[in-house]
Amino acid sequence: DTSFAAHVANQFTSYEIDRKSASGDVIYTTSNGAPIPHPYESQRAGENGPLLLQDFHLIDLLSHFDRERIPERVVHAKGSGAHGFFECTDPIPELTSADIFSAKGKRCPVTARFSTVGGESGSHDLARDPRGFSVKFRTESGNWDAVFNNTPVFFLRDPAKFPHFIHTQKRDPATHLTHADDSTMFWDYLSNNPESIHQVMILMGDRGIPDGYRKMHGYSGHSLKFVNKDNDWVYVQIHFKSMQGTGFITQEDSAKYSPDYSQKDLYEAIENGDYPKWTVEIQTMTPKQAEEAWETQGINVFDLTHIWPQAQFPRRKIGEFTLNENAVNYFAEIEQVAFSPSHLVPGIEPSADPVLQSRLFSYPDTHRHRIGVNYVQLPVNAPRTGFRHGNFQRDGGMAFYNQGGRSNYLSSIDPIQFRPRSVDLDKTHSDFTGRAVTFLSEIRPEDFNAPRALWQKVWDEPARERFIKNVSGKMELCKKKEIIRRQIAIFREVDEDIATRLEKVTGEKGYDGIANLEFNGIYNGMTKDVKL
Ligand code: HEM
């Protein structure tokens, strides 16, 4: 078809065409498509004169180059990713109406991104840090983003602490040093916020430096809600279990590897056809069980610093995902991918966990800043629903998909269609208000149970020794003795043995326990005579 209309239609090329074309198929042009014989042809006044303002080709080149950087992610800036697919192996229509879990063999495309947390985009892949583990499931009913970490718990349960905590993981505002050189801020925060202890134990233990991204698990950490077609619902914790197993690298060995170790490992495995896979598993809790767990065991489903005991709430497999395709263009497909815990689909709802609730807001907010208001229009972020979708969002920067000529308001002349809501919003768990929801930062004796189990039951003696070495090594870089004394007191609440060993190595005597300590305005529930 050589008509002008066909010619114009062909110009609205899709990303997929560009992605597949090789340089040999392409003719060199300026950004407006005008062919230029060679890129090294700057226009000058005469043989040796200054450059000409009319040389759009050179100005086009330089001015685009000048704008190549977008802000890096404020956290999780260093990352790697790949594409693949999810397959449902054990459907759960009785638990959720999410279409992707409705039938055995049901598949959807996925994009995953793994990351370290605190470092900048050029930082070392083998930093001792939690790892991000995000997966975008492009389901028939919209994109569902699992924005997980490789640890089941987190440092805090009060979202207001997040920027404070993260700032202590970043460069010092005065010295511009990171905690690799000066750990004073790092320990200052942790020694003032003891609810971080479980995550600190994991961080300083073997799991603090996973052996690349393929050999680690992912955890929702937060409780989510699965809602079925009858509006019955359960709380869920989601686990991604690495089918490669897990592996770790010691602190000493980490220095021997390339800063891009995990990127290389993931990329090369996929190029070699050794596709990494994870199972998707869930733990569930009914609202009634959640109330009982709080009443009898002090387990609060909204508390991200705690796990659900697996003996009581066993895991159950629902599917698997495989990463079998590397990005063709890292920037377009991985740097610009935008995950959000609020990108949910019918059948999956957030719980009232305050940290999750804050995240629902924070991610799209940062995407609008980092990528732009129309970030969802980028090919890697655009939903691929099983139906034509649309809404009334129009215009804004870079609106290249602006919903054509369809009505931009709720029109009676050109009406849009609606799908009935599948969730009865009245059936929420409004009665469950555990105390920790109000006193987000209260420290309780239960906060030390899981870390104690790690030390006493999960780790063997060499793992304990590595932990003491990692902690004491990090403490050597702390300039304030008082901070060390407090942090040792927190470890003493986990197990006397940890405190004694640290005291021996650091030469610093920690406080007896935390009952008499004050924590930056937090309620210390370990102090007997303080009343709420
Ligand atoms: C990235 C905020 C807690 C997992 C980010 C980003 C922000 C953010 C602003 C950068 C996103 C971007 O630029 O694309 C917060 C806030 C939190 C919080 C405000 C608490 C109040 C958590 C928790 C988890 C988590 C608890 C895991 C359970 C991630 C991951 C990424 C990320 C995996 C990287 C996403 C990617 O690969 O693009 N977070 N975060 N965050 N966060 Fe959080």
From TrEMBL:
One of its GO terms (cellular component) is mitochondrion. InterPro entries: Catalase, Catalase_AS, Catalase_clade1/3, Catalase_core, Catalase_haem_BS, Catalase_immune_responsive, Catalase_sf. Pfam families: Catalase (PF00199), Catalase-rel (PF06628). The keyword Iron applies. Heme binds at residue 363. Keywords: Alkaloid metabolism, Heme, Hydrogen peroxide, Iron, Metal-binding, Oxidoreductase, Peroxidase. Residues 29-417 form the Catalase core domain. GO terms for biological process: alkaloid metabolic process; hydrogen peroxide catabolic process; response to hydrogen peroxide. Its EC number is 1.11.1.6. It catalyses: 2 H2O2 = O2 + 2 H2O. It comes from the Eukaryota. GO terms for molecular function: catalase activity; heme binding; metal ion binding. Catalyzes the degradation of hydrogen peroxide (H(2)O(2)) generated by peroxisomal oxidases to water and oxygen, thereby protecting cells from the toxic effects of hydrogen peroxide. This is Catalase.
